[in-house]
Amino acid sequence: MNTVLSTFSASVSELKKNPSQLIEQSDGESIAILNHNKPTAYLVPAEKYERMMEELDDLNISRIIQEREEEKKLAQEVSLDDL
Prior knowledge:
The protein is α+β, with helices and mostly antiparallel strands. It has helices at 12-17, 19-26, 46-74; strands at residues 8-11, 31-35, 38-43. Strands 1-2-3 form a three-stranded mixed sheet. The longest helix is centred in the C-terminal third of the chain and has 29 residues, at 46-74.
């Protein structure tokens, strides 16, 4: 069984019938779109989606920083005169 990760849900038929009404009724929350009672998609408000993308970017940058910190430990210090 698939877990529905939203408080609001609607069938594909309901979505086709009146998407604007669904969005309005959800009051800014995500909507699980169900097909045969299984989630097939999530309808996420634009503002929330943009925040999610920013968070993912921040996580990715944080991962890169951690990797670089580990690489820095392996670096050897040299003077310009030695080059």
